[in-house]
Amino acid sequence: MAKKSSISKKTTSSRSSKTKKQGGFFARLIAFTLKWGLVVGLWLSIILGGLLFWYASELPSITKSMVFERRPTVIIKASNGEIVDRYGDLKGKIVDVKDLPPHVIQAILATEDRRFYDHFGMDLKGILRAFFVNVTRGGFVQGGSTLTQQLAKNLFLTRERTIKRKIQELMLAFQLEHELTKDEILSAYLNRVYLGSGAYGIDAAAHVYFNKSAQELNIREAATIAGLLKAPSRYSPSNNPELSAQRTKTVLQSMVDAEYITESDIKAYKNLPPAPRRKPSSGESVRYYTDYIVSQLDDLIGTVDQDITVETMLDKD
Known about the structure:
Elements: H1 2-57, H2 59-64, E1 74-77, E2 83-87, E3 90-91, H3 102-112, H4 124-137, H5 147-156, H6 163-179, H7 182-192, E4 199-200, H8 202-210, H9 219-227, H10 241-257, H11 263-270, H12 284-301, E5 308-311
Parallel strand pairs: 1-5, 3-4
Antiparallel strand pairs: 1-2
Helix pairs in contact: 3-9, 3-10, 5-6, 5-7, 9-10
């Protein structure tokens, strides 16, 4: 009996010793992992901080040179005062979101950034939603950039697609959110965004496509212009009336989904054919004439560095 008891005690002691060794090993492993995890994390933080500081050091020079470059607009008029052609880029008057009808703003937000007034420059929900949509549809269908990020990209940065540029774009978005109000950001975006046919800004687009100011746009027209943001040339009512009409219906439905308007609000507009105001042009013969006039301008008045209107003796009839 004594021998059995002795063996039992030795076995228990052996197991206890083994357990202690295993416990000590795991404790040392955890301590090692925590120690080097902190060291690696610290160095990564230093490197990342230095990288962000380097990128941020370039931002002041970028923000100070917020120059909106465009070619001067040259408008050619016939003898009766009718516009027969236009060259260069058109920029309408500066508008404030407070001066625009609510449905104009709602059309933009419904298609581009529904959470604009809630996020801080980056919309995490929007990014996840876009990722899910793109994965389920097997391609790039939806983007996750906010209007603030788009403004940062359009105003300050080059078109290069690099990690550095994307980081700077995000940093600039945060900077804009910090320094400007939401209405100021949205106003800046609407006044500078390119909307096709040489039109920069929503007021210019309203004049080019509908011969009216942005303040006069109805729901259907606002949806048409909002639809241009995805692809100005593809969905231009001047170039592709049918595609433009389809895109307009999509925007109107997005406005309904976002609960900005109801189905009854857009019922009168859904089945209407597009009513674009085409870019002024009067056929090939007139184009030859206007091209000749533009080619002579440098000799007549020097380099064209501002918008001008040229009155001609052209009789279209």
